[in-house]
């Protein structure tokens, strides 16, 4: 039996990542492909949740409403980049038994580790801003709760997290997969009855130079930031270790990497379809009409008032839309909290209860949303601008995660001869990093010159 050599990084680990779920899920030793895939399925769904949170909703719907089908190519490219990055993140965790935060901290000093932790925490808070806004708007649509009250009520989702943690990790995965399936079916039906321009939709998958114009670029980067989530790289590198495998058997490690990749790509394909459906829905309903920007409320009202041609029971669809919006934010509650714990333990070796971790993050995120709600009196356009800007910030933070991930998975010393990235993977990863960094610097410069 061939055995792996111990990797240099392991001796720096400050205990296993997310110790309470690490190596807790059994997998069959000699099961069929489908049985083995079922056993490894789950972490990909938790990662995919981050690719369809309320931030994705507003950027995709808004992108379709403002620019038609132009930016659907951005969703395609972002999703392919996400699949590559999540594959590398899962591989790093499974092979080295360290998450990305632990691996990065092992190669940096204490000061740089703290700086990287703070920047990652800022990205997590930016993601949480989208969840706060999405949850508050969903509560307003469903129960007519004022936005200020709804924003305050989102703090209570810490109670939901406490309940879910009692169910066990495998049951949480099953709940998330079910909710993703429901969201997919709801939007597939809504797009069908919205009568989109099929030819224009497929033409939108081909990138066009107009994307680089100022307004389109801002929205495109918002879509990238909402689609390729930097904190998901930390999450996946950790929860990929939840499967109980024999790390002394190189073939078993390779099998775990293979099925983790299958799981990730299948779930991210579902997230890609949902984001495309959201953009198509925004384009079909609002593009060229000169009214409504594809906001959550305008889309809800379109469904509620039977503005979709051929719609049946539109009020029911409007309720489903709002429920799905609320559910997507609550789904992200789980992953955001887990990621916060991962980066805190990995970068600064600090642990705290998940409920406390969640409460602190949510309180920090609520402040800018409450301020925006009070100053602009809950104006939709102001809330949407805050949402889009939070997603642009995530895009700016992305290279900070991509650079160490590419470095580590391209190192034979860290990954070993068998698991190091193939040359083409390394080249594509660096190309994506360079292009995204350039676009981010460009959008930052545009922002500065517009002041």
From TrEMBL:
It is a multi-pass membrane protein. Keywords: Cell membrane, Ion transport, Membrane, Symport, Transmembrane, Transmembrane helix, Transport. It comes from the Bacteria. GO terms for cellular component: plasma membrane. The chain crosses the membrane at residues 33-52, 67-90, 111-137, 143-163, 175-194, 214-235, 268-288, 308-327, 359-378, 390-408, 428-448. It is found in: Cell membrane; Membrane. The keyword Cell membrane applies. Signal peptide: none annotated. GO terms for molecular function: cadmium ion transmembrane transporter activity; manganese ion transmembrane transporter activity; metal ion binding; symporter activity. One of its GO terms (biological process) is iron ion transmembrane transport. Its main location: membrane. Belongs to the NRAMP family. H(+)-stimulated, divalent metal cation uptake system. PANTHER family: NATURAL RESISTANCE-ASSOCIATED MACROPHAGE PROTEIN 2, SOLUTE CARRIER PROTEIN FAMILY 11 MEMBER. This is Divalent metal cation transporter MntH. It comes from Sporolactobacillus inulinus CASD.
């Amino acid at each position: 039996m061939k055995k792996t050599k111990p990797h240099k990084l392991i001796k720096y680990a400050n205990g296993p990542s997310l110790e309470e779920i690490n190596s807790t899920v059994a997998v069959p030793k000699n099961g069929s492909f489908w049985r083995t895939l079922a056993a490894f399925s789950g972490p990909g769904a938790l990662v995919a949740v981050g690719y369809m949170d309320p931030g994705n909703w507003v950027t995709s719907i808004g992108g379709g409403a403002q620019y038609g089908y132009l930016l659907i190519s951005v969703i395609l490219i972002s999703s392919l980049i996400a699949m590559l990055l999540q594959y590398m993140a899962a591989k790093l965790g499974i092979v080295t038994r360290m998450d990305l935060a632990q691996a990065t901290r092992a190669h940096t000093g204490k000061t740089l580790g703290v700086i990287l932790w703070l920047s990652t925490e800022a990205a997590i808070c930016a993601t949480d801003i989208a969840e706060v806004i999405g949850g508050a708007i969903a509560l307003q649509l469903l129960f007519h709760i004022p936005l200020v009250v709804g924003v305050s009520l989102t703090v209570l989702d810490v109670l939901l997290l406490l309940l879910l943690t009692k169910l066990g990790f495998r049951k949480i995965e099953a709940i998330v997969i079910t909710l993703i399936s429901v969201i997919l079916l709801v939007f597939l039906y809504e797009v069908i009855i919205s009568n989109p321009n099929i030819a224009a939709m497929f033409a939108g998958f081909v990138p066009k130079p107009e994307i680089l114009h100022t307004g389109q670029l801002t929205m495109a980067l918002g879509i990238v930031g909402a689609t390729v989530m930097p904190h998901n790289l930390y999450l996946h590198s950790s929860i990929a270790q939840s499967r109980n495998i024999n790390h002394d058997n190189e073939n078993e490690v390779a099998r775990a990497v293979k099925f983790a990749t299958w799981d990730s790509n299948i779930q991210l394909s579902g997230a890609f379809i949902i984001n495309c459906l959201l953009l198509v829905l925004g384009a079909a309903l609002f593009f060229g009409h000169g009214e409504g920007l594809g906001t959550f409320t305008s889309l809800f009202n379109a469904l509620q008032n039977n503005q979709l041609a051929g719609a049946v029971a539109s009020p029911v669809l409007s309720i489903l839309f709002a429920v799905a919006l609320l559910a997507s934010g609550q789904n992200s509650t789980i992953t955001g909290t887990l990621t916060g714990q991962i980066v805190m333990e990995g970068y600064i070796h600090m642990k705290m209860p998940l409920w406390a971790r969640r409460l602190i993050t949510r309180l920090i995120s609520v402040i800018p949303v409450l301020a925006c709600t009070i100053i602009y009196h809950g104006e939709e356009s102001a809330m949407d601008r805050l949402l889009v800007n939070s997603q642009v910030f995530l895009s700016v933070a992305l290279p900070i995660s991509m650079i160490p991930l590419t470095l580590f998975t391209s190192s034979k010393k860290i990954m070993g001869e068998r698991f190091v990235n193939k040359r083409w993977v390394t080249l594509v990863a660096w190309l994506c990093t360079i292009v995204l960094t350039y676009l981010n610097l460009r959008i930052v410069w545009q922002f500065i010159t517009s002041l």
